[in-house]
């Protein structure tokens, strides 16, 4: 995972694209998000955010949407430095679903019984579709 010190403003990037001077674009994973890296004849630079420092996009989708909005439709993705930790809200929801299922005291249904019930439903649907 390389670090690129020089930034490029969105206006400068738009001008590079307009002049067809952009050689390559990539999204590079970082611990907390994604950087948009551009390569041109003069070297590599990272897209600057509003404050002038490197723009860090929170998700790959957000970064890809920005690139698409700039007219960059083909790019490389480097996941070497990315962190793919699950979303904490989803993780909590999923764990609660599992716990609720484990705590459920309602009677269980045998697998063969469920298969028989759905076989009967499929047969009824086939009869209905056949007009009888």
TrEMBL record:
Q: For the Stability determinant domain, which residue ranges apply?
A: 89-114
Q: Name one Pfam family in it.
A: PaaA2
Protein name (Swiss-Prot/TrEMBL):
Stability determinant domain-containing protein
Q: Which organism is it from?
A: Pseudoduganella aquatica
Q: What is the lineage of its organism?
A: Bacteria, Pseudomonadati, Pseudomonadota, Betaproteobacteria, Burkholderiales
